[in-house]
Amino acid sequence: MSETNSAADVAAPHRYTAAMAADIEARWQDFWDAEGTYEAPNPTGDLAGDPELAARPKKFIMDMFPYPSGAGLHVGHPLGYIATDVFARHQRMTGHNVLHTLGFDAFGLPAEQYAVQTGTHPRISTEANIANMTAQLRRLGLGHDKRRSFATIESEYYKWTQWIFLQIFNAWYDTEADRARPIDELVAQFESGERATPDGRDWSALSAAERADVLGEYRLAYASDAPVNWSPGLGTVLANEEVTADGRSERGNFPVFKAKLRQWNMRITAYADRLLNDLDGLDWPEAIKLQQRNWIGRSEGARVDFPVDGAGSVTVFTTRQDTLFGATYMVLAPEHELVERIIPAAWPEGTHPVWTGGHASPAEAVTAYRKQAASKSDVERQAEAKDKTGVFTGAYATNPVSGEQIPVFIADYVLMGYGTGAIMAVPAHDARDFAFARAFELPVRCVVEPSDDRGTDASTWEDAFASYDAKLVNSANDEISLNGLGVADAKARITEWLKEHGVGEGTVNFRLRDWLFSRQRYWGEPFPIVYDEEGIAHPLPESMLPLELPEVDDYSPRTFDPDDADTQPETPLSRNAEWVNVTLDLGDGAGPRNYRRETNTMPNWAGSCWYELRYLDPNNSEKLVDPAIEEYWMGPREGQPTGGVDLYVGGAEHAVLHLLYARFWSKVLHDLGHVSSAEPFHKLYNQGMIQAFVYRDSRGIAVPAAEVQERDGAYYYQGEKVSRVLGKMGKSLKNAVTPDEICTEFGADTLRLYEMAMGPLDVSRPWDTRAVVGQYRLLQRLWRNIVDEETGEVTVVDSEPGEDTLRALHKAIDGVGGDMAGMRFNTAIAKVTELNNHLTKAGGPLPRPVAEALVLLIAPLAPHIAEELWRRLGHTESVVHQDFPVADPAYVVDETVTCVVQIKGKVKARLEISPSITDAELEALALADPAVVAALDGAGIRKVIVRAPKLVNIVPA
Predict the structure, then answer these.
(1) Residue 546 CA neighbour count, 13 Å, CB half
(2) The domain over range 894-956 is classified in CATH as 3.40.50.300
(3) Which of 4, 81, 845, 917 is the 20 to 30 Å CA partner of 749?
(4) Which residues 6+ apart lie within 8 Å of 607 measured at CB?
(5) What is the CATH number of domain 38-152+606-686?
(6) Distance from first CA to last CA of the chain, Å, rounded?
(7) What does pTM read for this prediction?
(8) How far is CA 129 from the centre of its chain?
């Protein structure tokens, strides 16, 4: 606890206390704001007129966007912010031009849900939350350039979010050039005939709607009718990444169903290879790279077409095209678009009863099964369930290599989210296909020779046999034979045959799906899109941006029974007819026309896809970002071939959400020439989590942690025994500790030191308020070493330190500097503590060079007390921009080290020698030592093993 009111404080009125810390911290925060201490100059401003400043290396340091929660901050939230602040301060002190700032990611579902519950407009609650969090963060002394701060809900900001959307909408991906290009260049190809239209007609012969449909197949932002994740309980659709493994919404934990709706999408799949390949050049944790690689999911295989009478072909993607002769049935995802086209009016004659699911017709069976499958998540559908479910569509397809008619089923273990949403089932060599075949009494044909003794009659097998190192059997027709070939050779041979016969080709597939970009919510960026009377989408001209979110009385999306899958979204904006229906002149020569606005809004991820760019040039109303400014802070350079932010710190939970989306937007903007950086974040660092104990009563309900008492190793709340488990910190768990509480009791510098000293930054650690006092006492001892607690006078003397102190000082400088650069802040604090303890034990007033170096060492970690002491030491300039101390190598190396001399493995002497001694010099010293001479007693020497400077081992003859 704080000692503010103790008797000791009365006797020492200038002692460092919580009250003094509060005064010091408030004064210096006001000073930094007034002086613009943390303002980073841009190359087009101050740098241009200051050669010395311009010569400094730059460092762009970022935290992941905070969301302004109504609960405010608990002590776990600032961990990353304090860490980047410490690192940024050290970088400034080592000669860097540092850009470090923070804004707010303020659109999205939490604010809207709170607004619906309370009747408070989301803008009012969000702005209040931002003000509260800003005050909390300011109290921590974070060195942000506040001129560059913003919130995504500001129309000046989302004007450019809308502008970027239009750049993506008006772009297509040229696979030959391997980059995005303006859509006008694609139109020119169609107009000239260089590129043929899908049906071969001249471009001029197509109607406006037909042209729009053709371009929609190319645009990087497009609207389509596609299976989506529909959450009736939220009243909105969700991206795949926003659905949990058990098929529920990440926000609110509502059931999620598959539904077909017209929604906006981003064609992120066009960049799959580049998103994958460019990971190699990024300085990211390998675990995050692996998550992105797995999410993108690149696999090589073949596309194979299976003709279906009257319905064209069903196309599958397979990585085992060598087993094509073993395909005895096909399975489509229940949502597959071909299902309606292939089902006949009645069951074919001879249909196996088990295939029908007991339904009178294929249509009835399919409808019932689809409803059943819609209630399952993708994870549930792919789980290795004991019982396989599905239903026959009534249609047959032709195996292109055998000519065999094979039945087509739908089953929930096949997903539209991978490949083509259809598979060729080879039950002999796939466990899921085998289980399905047994359940539905389908043929099982061996085409890969088993390595065990089961034989090739698959009808007798009890399970599937899978191998990539075996020979093909039973795989031949009149034109081709794969028999006797290994898997790799068989793949190559059959792929060549498929292409020759026009029924397939080798191809690459990705697990990555296009990004669902529509939300049926109010609190988000409006789409800068209007629809004409034919339903054709038109982009708003840049002059009409921003399209501002209208003020409405009813901003809640229509929600439904969470379990009712047979519902449709109704957006809040759609109820605002005056805003939706407008007459506009889009400047396209058509004059004023009637239009209908898009009534979906963008997802909350939109604003965080590009915010690093706005930090660079936050007041630019003419351009997304000044090219010179962007290139200075984020452009490619040595060691950073794709450019990007120098250090980005945040949680690992955004690996396949924000991080993947931001990379996609960055690449599109780079391709279109708007930025020089092809990647947004060069170096990524994932901080750990501050955890706290959660106490629960017999009902499992969390009780206030602060009121729990410990007795004899057990825990009690109001006399009742409670359980304890280490978990997250949060208001709902009743274990949250706010930074305000700690700042009041100990001061912000103490909080900063404690959070950095708790352990390695990338490791989760438990919070313990009782341990905070340790860092508080460190600051008290540091203060006491420089300031007289009774008089308040500085006690340093203008004299040179002794050699022991010089060695302790320079070892600390060397160690702390290295730790700061490596973000090992816990060990840096340990070294400062060790130095401070040395100085305390040495006694007497500190020599000025030592006192000043000590203050500079602690400055990045505890900036308020450092600024105060620096000023008291007689300096008039801020400590923030002082040079970090540089160690003298002569004092870093120990003067002597102890060398052990052994004879027959037993220690006979210890020598104090120079650490730089050579092997020959050490051997001579060891053999001349009196104790060694006596121990050898005239015996000869067979061998001397020298490991300078620590060991000499003598082996007598």
Answers:
(1) 18
(2) no
(3) 845
(4) 65, 105, 106, 107, 152, 157, 158, 161, 525
(5) 3.40.50.620
(6) 67
(7) 0.86
(8) 24
